[in-house]
Amino acid sequence: MQEPSSRHSEAPAKPAGKAVVLLTKSAFAAAPHAEMRRLAAIASMLPGVAEAVSCYCEQGQPSLRDALLSLRDSGHGTIVIVPLMLPMEPSFRNWMTRSLKRWQREFPGGWPPIHISRDIAQSLHFEPLLAALVGGASAEMPIPPADREATEGSLVPSQKRRVLVCEGGACNAAGADVIWGHLRNRQQERKLRITGDGTMTAKSTCLGPCSLAPVLQVFPEGTYYGGVSEAVIDRIVEQHLLGGKVVSDFAYAPTGRKQRLRSAPPPSLEQSET
């Protein structure tokens, strides 16, 4: 019997070239998710692009972190993140860079170089694109005058728990948007609105302890959490929101005195398995 060719027994070669990550803020319904996947398909056909994916820095799946982790060991020469947001906040690159460095520390090894493209408004092609959009608007169906608005009732939320994520300057610079997005995704996955006591989530202006950024606060206890990461969010969800037990490793009591951010404790075997 003829032995199989060695070329068939070799492991398939890893994809080379550039990976493109199309990033937007959030998407809730199926239609915007489908649109982002369509844009990623277009990007995948560009010269030099081996793979293109879409993701979200706030609520939506996959998150930016999950998308990058899926590309980390794919053998791509570089990863290019293309933000599709207008306007791009001045602090965007700062918290993005901090988040990327944190993820690289949490998941060491295998990372190709990562680049962030300029924002859309700074592109040389933005002006003709804007002109085309303005010119094409006349072909669209005009919006009819509004009818008399009907008065509708609203349900008063019955959820007993509230989580406020700080969106102050220090927290934004420390990646509050990433934390908010991870919390919202977990809220949907774990059905926190209807599980346990029920949990509502909201963004907040500055919560106060800026040196502990990023910060969130859990009610009705009013517990402050500082130095929050995705892993800390997961612990807060399981232990505090669903289990009713404060995660003391990252909780800060209102002592009336200044407090510094504590070093994160090493994960225990029990935590690493959850």
UniProtKB/TrEMBL annotation:
What Pfam families would the database entry show?
2Fe-2S_thioredx (PF01257), CbiX (PF01903)
Is Chaperone included in the keywords of this UniProt record?
Answer: no
Q: Which InterPro entries match?
A: CbiX-like (IPR002762), Thioredoxin-like_sf (IPR036249)
* Keywords on record: Lyase, Metal-binding
Task: Spell out the coiled coil positions from the record.
Answer: none
Output the superkingdom of the source species: Bacteria
Query: What is this protein's name?
Result: Ferredoxin, 2Fe-2S
Source organism (scientific name): Nitratireductor thuwali
- Source organism phylogeny: Bacteria, Pseudomonadati, Pseudomonadota, Alphaproteobacteria, Hyphomicrobiales
What gene name is listed for this protein? Answer: fdx4
